[in-house]
Amino acid sequence: MNLSQNARGALMMTLAMGVFTTNDAFVKMVTPDMNTGQIMFIRGTLTTIMLVFLARHYGVLHQWRMMFQPKVLLRSVFEIGAAITYISALAHIDLAVAATILLSLPLAVTFGAWLIFKEAVGWRRWLAILVGFAGVIIVLRPGPEAFVPASLLAVSAVFFTSGRDLVTKRIASGTPTLIISLFAGLTNTLVGGLLIPVMGGWNPVSLSALLYLALAAILILAGYLSIIMAMRSGEISFVAPFRYTSLIFSLSLGFYFFGETPDSYMAVGGSLIVASGLYAFYREKVRARTIAAETLPRTPQ
Length: 301
Known about the structure:
The chain is an all-alpha fold and about 300 residues long. The protein is about 75% helix and about 0% strand. The chain has helices at about 5-30, 35-55, 70-90, 95-100, 105-115, 125-140, 150-170, 175-200, 205-230, 235-240, 245-260, 265-295. Helix 2 packs across helix 3, helix 2 crosses helix 9 (about 205-230) and helix 4 crosses helix 7 (about 150-170). It is globular.
């Protein structure tokens, strides 16, 4: 895997984190006035329209049948679960807190790779996973006074998103990114529409709210494309740590738009999550080098 592929994957991951976090900020702005289903429906409709035009422009729309590959279908199930839980979490907890919990995603991906795909995980990475999840518990502040139950929705979003990323890595390389993204947009729109009556019905949409969701749709589109390209480019051990740039974006946007300031729980918990995640990726890189060295042909003496 050459440097240019790694650099491209890192750039796409950083871009994805920036646009996803900004999308989260715009979504949080409208949560007081709309339910999760309505937000998914409006944002999903706008995103899908743009994706259809892009897919047609780049000549891949005729490959729409590839949407129904089992792995693409499964990816969208995880995507829907992540959207429902995370948008619901944003309505009740700080943007920075939600984003900090989401930083445990690489550890959840490692755990999922072991659980589902039987990938080897050494004791050092297991320790990093435990420390990282301990950081999540600290951020959650599990006490009767400070604990916010809605923060568990952000934890659920971590596991849905890790499932999405694990499946994305295993979708056939010949499947166009736009087709994968288009199916995600379509299914989110459909499920969002079905959830509207369940979650309280349709609420009036102000011009400002529509503008925020339009901007969110543009950003979520950029995020869809960037995250898929990131996960399909470069070495995952090199690219995935760039997820932690989301902490910079969330702290900045949370302070600017919502006046949020991180407390000591978030500082300590977030530090543990980031440190353990980076160490887990470091150990993965060491393990990959060891395996590569062991498989090199021996030079006859």
